[in-house]
Fold this sequence. Notes:
Oligomer: single chain
CATH superfamily of the domain at 28-60 and 105-146: SET domain
Helix content: under 10%
Largest sheet: 3 strands, antiparallel
Strand order of the largest sheet: 5-11-10
Shape: globular
Number of helices: 2
CATH class of the domain at 28-60 and 105-146: Mainly Beta
Strand content: 25-35%
Radius of gyration: 21 Å
Amino acid sequence: MATKKKTGSTTKTKRSVKKRGILALYPWKEEPNPYLELRTSGIQGTGAFATRAIRKGTRIIEYVGQRISWRTADKRYDDEKMGRHHTFLFTVDEKVVIDGAVQGNAARFINHSCDGSCEAIDDRKRIFIEARRNIKAGEELLYDYQYERTDDHTAADEAFYACRCGAAKCRGSILAPPKTS
């Protein structure tokens, strides 16, 4: 279907094109997300799985939730009182953290892997999950959490932050790799 739009003294033909989502520029904002679905994961609880083949570099989903201070996050999630580590917190900067458990979306269910198919990208204090390689339909979407490692981490901390990814390159922990001097 073509419509005619009058501009000045000339007439231009404008084709009507049906686009999905927000002018098809931001498909990760669509509900439901066209790239993923939630299912039971062999790694941990619920996981996110590709509904179609996803090309390397594709922005899959934005990690959203309530933006809170670290002080509030520490009050909500006390590692000392948890039997095992489990939160939906994502660091934005030294002052702000996203709590995906409050007003969050499906991104909070993307599990950790030491050799994940995705990576987290900080784009002007917004966190996006992008494909770091081509991903097959049906494959679980995973990224390396790389939780901050401090100099005083103990063997008990390593056990608390144990990794269950099963990757050939698994380092045994969701903590960032130790810094080499």
